[in-house]
Amino acid sequence: MKRPAELLRAHGLRPKKAWGQNFLGDPLILDALAALARLRPGDTAVELGAGLGHLTRALLATGARVVAVERDRELAPVLRAGLFAAEVVEADAKSFDLRTVAAGGKVVVCGNLPYHLSSPILFHLLDQRAFVRRAVLLLQREVAERVAAEPGGREYGVLSVLVRQAADARIGLEVGRHSFTPPPQVDSSALVLEFLEKPRAEVRDEGRFRKLVKTAFAQRRKTLWNALAPLEGGRTALERAGIDPRRRAETLSVLEFAAIERALDG
Predict the structure, then answer these.
(1) 45-97: per-residue pLDDT in tens?
(2) Which residues of 216-234 are buried (b: 16+ CB within 10 A; e: fewer)?
(3) FRET label pair with 215: which of 16, 128, 227, 241, CA 20 to 30 Å apart?
(4) pTM of the prediction?
């Protein structure tokens, strides 16, 4: 397959900077990403932001069924012309309904995501976790490190907690900025998410759990006593859950956040 720059020229196209289009064409890296997905014949892979189809080809080589999701109407014809075995769907990765392709099972989600859309797409995946077995997502390195961070560190935050509630997270691969066309200003990492059969901790209300976590980290330098003051019943819930109010959000595990959420019921 032609390199991204050659393929763009052949079709008279340019990367859309506003859309965060940075195309990856290194076959060794693409094969490594496909290997992280651990696909087998009969599996369904959903690629979010398929772009020019380079990763799509690597995923197809595993024998899996591949659904290539791309919102750029100028790129969709390029995908269809070069990837006869893939199903190309013109849709937005932030809102694509995985149920439509899961067929009652679970899919593996892959993608080289635009950096500015990584958080909305991650939240969307969490909302659809019942249909996802695994995800391999190429993200800005700092974002991937935040998601995979353990409690107690500066990187640990809202995404760390919410993703950890639904999945095991790890960094599977580092990718330098010069592997992309055009090169972005930052390096990337492949985040690997192994979704759990059930949430890591029991919560009563998923929306309330998210609100609690976001409130706790909104002013992360404050103690939990002060950070949770805007949340109705937050301070009382700390006491009921047996959490020291002098602690900060970055020190709490998922299980401890869940205990506070349950304690909000009184």
Answers:
(1) 999 999 999 999 999 999 999 999 999 999 999 998 877 788 999 999 999 99
(2) bbeeeeeebbebbeebeeb
(3) 128
(4) 0.94
List the chain residues with pLDDT less than 50: none
Q: How many CB atoms lie within 10 A of CB 2?
A: 13
pLDDT of residue 60: 95
pLDDT of res. 81: 86
Q: Residue type for 200, please?
A: R
Q: What's the CATH fold of domain 4-195?
A: Rossmann fold (3.40.50)
Label the pairing between strands 188-195 and 167-175: antiparallel
Q: Which of 91, 180, 98 is nearest to 141 (CA)?
A: 180
pLDDT value of residue 11: 92
How far apart, in whole angstroms, are the C-alpha atoms of residue 156 and residue 2?
A: 40
Domain ranges of the chain: 4-195, 206-263
Q: Which CATH architecture has domain 206-263?
A: Orthogonal Bundle (1.10)
Report residue 88: phi and psi, to 5°: -95, 125
